[in-house]
Amino acid sequence: MTGRAIGVLGTVLDRSSYAVAPTVVAVGLFIANAVVQPSFIDSSNWASTLAVSSPFVLTALAQAPPLLSGNGGLDLSVGPFAGFITVFVAAVLVPAGLGAPEVLIPLVIGFGLAAGGVNGVLIAYVRLPPIIATLGTYLFYSGISTYVLPSPGGVVPAWLIKLDGSYGPVPGIWIVFAVVTAGWMLLSRTAFLRNLLAVGGDERAAYTAGMNTAMVKLWAYALAGMLAALAGLLLAGVIQSGDATIGPGYTLTSIAAVALGGISLAGGRGGLLGAAMGGAVLYLVQNLLTVAHVSVFQLDIADGLLLIAALALNGALERLRKRGGGSGAHRVIAEATVAVAGSL
Amino acid sequence: MSAESDSPTSVLLELTGLSRSFGETRALVSASLAVKPGEIHALAGENGSGKTTLIKVLSGVLRADSGELRWAGRLARFPNPASAQSAGISTVFQETLVAPELSVRDNIVLGTDGVFRHRRTARDERLVAAQALNELGLEGLDLNRALWTLSLAERQIVTIARAIIRPWQLLILDEGTSALDTTQRDRLFAYLRRARAEGRSVLFTSHRMDEVAQLADTVSVLRLGETVARLAMAETSPRQVLVLMAGRRSVDRALAASEHPRVEPHPVAREGTRVPVLRIQDLALRRGASTMALAVDRGEILGLAGLEGQGQVDLAECVCGLQRPASGAVLIADGSGTWRAVRNFGDANRRGIAYVPRDRKQEGLFFSLSTLDNFSLTLMRELNHIGVIRPSVVRLRYGEYAELLHLKVRHSSDPVGTLSGGNQQKVLLARWLSTRPQILVLNDPLRGVDANTKEELYQLFRKLAADGLAIVLVSTEILELLTLCDRIAVFHDGGLQAVLPAARTTDTDVVAAMFGHAIESSPGG
C-alpha cells in the first residue's frame, strides 16, 4: 500500500479506535448467529437478512450526527419520521405516479434533508433544547402518519421490493450500503466531521475560533433527517407497504445502537462507523434471540439490557483510556493494523 | 490623559464611548482605546474593570450596547468572531478554549474551514501548525496528540498557535501568558516583538507588572468600565499604572510585592520550635527518578518551583493524594503522633489536607452552580443534621469566609461563572479553608488575579501560616515565591534540584536551579 494510503488509513483507524469494541462484538455475534442458524450465512438468505437489518443500521447512522454535536443533541424523531416516509411513499407518492427510482429516491432524500433541516433550525437558531424540539417532531410525524394512513396499506414499487432480493449474485441491499459508504467517505473528506466533533467537544471553543457552529448543527440534523428518510424507504421495501405504527420503535433502538457503537452521549467523540456497527450488533442480537425462539416481548428486555451494558462498558473504557494517557488497546490495535497494511 | 495627536490614518483600532451592561452590572461604561500600527499596547485594569468585556467586543463575541469602533479608519461592527477574524483581529482568550478530543493539529486550525470546505490541505495544515508551535517553543509536540493529554501550558500555547496562523493585524492576548513558564514566555515575547517590527500590533492584558513594563509601548488603564488613562510606557512607571488601576487606595504594598522580594522571618522559627506536619520520604515521582525527602513544618510556607512539567505539580498531587508516587510515601502525623502514609485524595482530605487546583474551570468550580453552593460543597457532611441542611447556617459560614477573603459578590446565589477570575479564586479558597485544614496545597492559585487581590491574598496566606497552617504552594512566578515562601523547592527533570531559603535567595538563583544548576543547598535541606 502506498505511503499516502497508509497515512489515510492510519488517521481513519485512529479516529475510529472508539469503534473497535463494537466491531469485534459484531463479528462475534455474526459468528454466533451462523453457528446457531447455519442458514444464516446461506447466500440466498443474505439479501433478506441485510435488507431487514438496514433500517436498524440506517437509523443508527441517522442518530449519530445529532449526538456528536453535543450540548444535549439527539434526534427523537428518527423513528416516527422513518415510519412517516413509509406512509408517504406507499400512500402518497407512488399512487401519484412518482414511483420510479430516479424520481422517488431524490424526492425522499430531499424531503429528509428538509425535515431534518426543520429540526436543525429549531435547535440551532431558535435554540430549543434538542430533546424538546425532536419530541415535538416525533409526535408530529407519529400523528400525521396515522392521519394519512390509518391502517397499513398502500403501494410500494416493485424495484424497491426487489432490493430485498438479489440482482444475480449481488444482494440488492449491497448497492444501498455501497452508496451509503460512498456518501460517508465523501463526507469524511470534507471538514464537516471535524467541525462536528469540535462543536460537540466544546462549542464555545469552536465558536470563538470563528466556526459557524449554528450551521454545523443544522447540517447535523439535516443529515439525520436524510438518513432516517432512507431508512424509511428501505423499511417500506421490507414490509412491502406503508405502516404508521412501525416507526416509533426505531427511535429507541437508534439510541441503543449509537451507545453500543461507542459514541459518547455527551458529544465530541465517535463517528459513523461505530454507529453502523452498533446497529449491526443490535440487529444480530435480535436475530440470534429470535432464532433461539425467544418471544418478541422478551426482545425488548434484551434491548434494554444491552443498552445498559453498552453504556456501562462505554464509561469504563473511557476511564481506562484517560488513565492510560491515551495509549490504550485501541491505539495499539490501530497501529498494528496500519503496520500490517503497510506490508501489503 | 496624555496622548500624541492621532491622525485617522495612523490609528489601527479606535474605540470611543463603548458601553455594555449585563442586566444590572455595567461592565463597560464609557471605554475608549486607540491602538497604532506597529505598537504593543497593554490594557491594564483590575478584575471587574471591564477588560475582558472590552476584548470580547473587539473579538466579535459580544456586542456593545453603544459606542463606536473604527478599524483602519472605517466604522466597523463585529457581530460574530468570524467577522473580527476576517478583519484581521486574532484573539487568545483568558479561558483556554480547546476541543479536548481533537488533535493538536485540529485544534490549531479550528475555525478556519467552512462548514464542509477545507481551507488547507492536510499537508499544509501540518506545516502551518508545526511552524506556529516552533515559534512558540513547542517544537517537539506531536501534532496527533489529543488535547486532553496536554498540560495547561501546552493547551494555552495551542490556543496561541491557533491565533497566530491567521493573517492578523491585531493580536489580542487576554492573560495569554498566565500558564506559561519563563522560557515559553520569552519565546512568545520575541515573537511579538518581531511582529511589531513588521508593523503589526498587539493588545494584551497581564496582571504581571514586570511583563507590562517589559513589553508595552503604550498602556491604557481601565477602571470600573471607563478608560482613565492612556500613557506611553516610557513616560510612566508600574507604580503609576497601579495607582491609576486602583484609584484612591494605597498601592505601596501591591507595588512592593510586584517589584521587590519581601523578606519576613519564618513565624514559627521566631519562636524557636519547628513542628513537622508533613513528611516526604524516599519519594520518587517516576520509576528510576531520583528520590527526595522533605519535611514541612506547621506554619511554614513551602514553595514548589520549576519549569513546566519538571515534577513540582506531580509532587503537590502526591501530597494531596491525587497521584501515587512510583516509590516512597507522603506521611502525615496522626493525632496520636504516629506517621501514616496518604492513601488517596479522600484519605488526605479527612486528615486535614486541602487542595486548590490550578484550572478552576475544569478542576475546581461548578460554573452553573451558585457561589454559595460552590462554597458549601465541602461543608455538607459537617453541617448536615440527620440529612437536613439549614440554609441560614450555610450562609453564616459563607459570611465568615467572605469577610476573611474580602469577597464581595452581588448575590451569593448568582452562578459562580458570572464572577471575575479573582473572585472565583476566592470562592475556591473559601471552600477549602472552611474545612479547617492543617495543610493547604495550592497549585498556581493566583493565576490571572489582579495585583490588589493578590496582595490581599498574600496577606491572608501569611496570616494563616502565622496561625499554624502549613502551606505548599506551586507557582510559576518567581517573585511570588520569593515574597511569600519560607523555602523554595526547585524541581528539575522529575526530581528535586534544590531547596532554597527564600530569605537568602535571589531570583537568579531560582532560575539557575530551574535549569539544573546546583546551588548552595542540596536536596533534603
What would you say about this model in short?
The complex is a heterodimer of chains A (344) and B (525). With 344 residues, chain A is mostly helical.
Describe the structure.
With 344 residues, chain A is mainly alpha-helical. Chain A contains 15 helices and 2 strands. Chain A has a two-stranded antiparallel sheet with strand order 1-2. In chain A, β1 and β2 (170-171) form a beta hairpin. Residues 325-330 of chain A have low confidence and may be disordered. With 525 residues, chain B is of the alpha/beta class. Helices cover 34% and strands 23% of the residues of chain B. Chain B has helices spanning 51-58, 81-87, 104-108, 122-135, 152-164, 182-197, 209-215, 238-246, 252-259, 267-271, 312-319, 345-350, 360-364, 371-376, 380-383, 391-404, 421-433, 451-466, 478-484, 507-514, and strands spanning 13-22, 25-35, 40-44, 66-71, 74-75, 89-92, 170-174, 201-205, 218-223, 226-232, 276-284, 292-297, 301-306, 327-333, 339-341, 353-356, 439-443, 470-474, 487-492, 495-501. A 6-stranded mixed beta sheet of chain B has the order 6-7-8-3-9-10, sandwiched between helices. Chain B has a 6-stranded mixed beta sheet with strand order 16-17-18-13-19-20, with helices on both faces. A 4-stranded antiparallel beta sheet of chain B has the order 2-1-4-5, with helices on one face. In chain B, α9 crosses α18 (451-466). The A-B interface holds A 14, 190-192, 194-195, 197-198, 201-202, 204-212, 215-216, 219, 268-269, 322, 325-326 and B 59, 61, 80-82, 85, 91, 93, 95, 97-102, 106, 110-119, 144-146, 148-149, 162.
